[in-house]
User: Fold this.
Amino acid sequence: MSALAWRKTKSTLFGTLTLSTILISFALLVALIVYILINARPLMAMRAASRAGLVLSTMVIQWDAQNLPYVIITDFIPDSAAARAGIAEFDAVIRIGSEVVFRSAHVWDAIARLPNDTLPISWINGDPVKIFGELLPQMDPQTGALRVVIDYLPEESLGFQAGLRVGDIIVRIEDIPVTGARQAWEALIVAAQRRAQPGPFSVHIERDGELLTLPLEAEQTAQIPITRSWGQAIWDFLTSYDSNSPEKAGLASAIVGSFYLVGLTALFALPLGVGAALYLEEYARKNWLTELIQLLIANLAGVPSVIYGIIGLEILARALKMDRVLFTGALTMTLLILPMVIIASREALRTIPDSIRHAAYAVGATHWQVVRSHVLPYALPGILTGLIIALSRAMGEAALLILLGAFQYLTFLPNLRSYFTVVPIQIFTWIGEAKDGFASIAAAAILVLLTILLAMNALAIFLRIKFQRRW
Amino acid sequence: MKQTALQPALHAPPGRYLKERLIQGVLFVCAFLAVVVTAATIWLFISGSGVFFSKVSLREFLGGIRWAPTDVSTPSYGALPLIMGTLIITGIALLVALPIGLLSAIYLSEFASGRVRKIAKPILEILAGIPTVVYGYFALLFVTPLLRTVLPDIQFWNALSAGIVLGIAIIPLVSSLSEDIIYAVPRELREGAYALGATKFETIRHVVLPAALSGIAASFILAMSRAIGETMIVAIAAGRVPSWPPDLLKPLETLTVHIVNVATGDAEAGAFIWATIFAIGALLFVITLSLNILSYWIVRRFRERYE
Assistant:
């Protein structure tokens, strides 16, 4: 290759390299959005399950030095489809259809895959008394091994119906030796998870020295109607309060808090920001004070938001005794976005040509009349665009508000004088929860937040295009 | 800056002049707020740090390697783990953001056609508009598991993924600032280089980039300041435990995250731990403020003037 050809090739290679960096950024953006969409998908099934009365938790059985996960119902919702089928709090869910479920996430996956809106479910009663009655552990006088004896057995219990009687010694369930009262119930769960079909368990007992095998119908099955609808799921998610169960937790307080906060911030930031910009552009003389103000505004724009959080907390909330409430949060947020609003407003004011001002002066307007009737109306679209961009920053801001006490568990709608939470902080809280499902609702909340931001930016672009003037 | 002096209109109704002065006064107060806020911040940090440094020596604070303000029996206030944590996260972020941001800027200004530029720039801006909690989620649940396929020892919370994702978050900052500067290099300089027989790469390497160097440097410094002040990505993905010596694959804590920890903790107002956020905040404020002023100064001092 000649020297010239190599020099040209270097240009092409370099061009490709720079293009690839742009493509990397785009690929990352796409990966981020797709990943969040995928993670938010269980929301529909989670909501469908909780509306049907299946509020779940993943529990663990310590078994042969292993942790075996299983799913229980953690919340009894009266009059739900599950309650009508006879499912109660603490019951263990074994199967959805023919598939064994070990974690709540498996239940939601199975619900999402159902061919129709009927949920075939099987479960084991969570109250051991309703199955075996009261069990008494005792020692086998011959071998010294632990075993359990039925001490009391109500007639409506499943065990009684299977033929168990008081005084029976439960030896094994299927092939699992029974050694304790609680362990007998756990053996049922483990045995149920190990087999392919629901059906009676073989309970091996010793009655008067005789070994008997009885069929115990402990795994109950039912068909529960559920409503699987994205519209309903999203509505439920947006209108319910935070909860310890991810399938019941919603964004209501956070959304109201966010809109209150951003609206209030706009109310404070618009007059202050426009006022400062008008002063600097239309009134200020070129002197050291003006220079200083400009330098400070440029620097305040680069101060990290946690620093504003400290200012808001220590000066407004504590020294001025305004407390860590929504109003204080909005004031602090105003301080954060004010430099941005001022800078954007100044740019908007600068695009207005002097001929407009001169024309107004020529017909006898005072300085303020020129500004109010001519400069400001023409600059307003640009100012509003800048304001909306700054507000979208406020909408996504979490660090500052954590300091102002927005890190709260709220089950009411916030108002100006109340403690509050906002969407980004709700996301932060949910990311920190280990329970199955919180990652999914965090992703769903992220989608809500991104949708709001997209709408705000679309509004800004619309304003810019609709009212843009060229001078 | 307008130099228009206030002139009362002829035959002005009485009171109009006063009203004009009043309005000007109100507008001045709005602008003067910047001075008030800065002064209040500085006063707050000085007085708050006073409480802290009356109990902890500056030497212990800047030189100590154990940060344990919540330890009841033997509290220790050595901020080096936090400072190093911040530097490590910032370093990783800059390693990601600077090359990608700068090369993207070069592509947009030197290689892209007008139409591509018009579409690509706003898409890059979207990356800048995504809230940092979203990046934190991405780092914790996507990037860390991805890194684990290569580095099996990486922990659930770690510095590496937080740093990388923080870098992604500040790519647009680097690229849009640098692009503005590179785009502003006048066409004549490039054409002069072409006339001498330089290829496109040589023109960029020897003419355009040197001409834009001060602006690029300023954008790098701003990116650094932004990375140092970033809170949520690190709080979510890097864990919240101070560690010494810091390790890329393990959790660590930064200056900003300590502030979040105190705010989300259950310490009562007035407890000494609240004094630590002044010392840490003051350190953070001084660092970011110096970096911002430095970049402001570089731009003004080294700006190439083209006629």
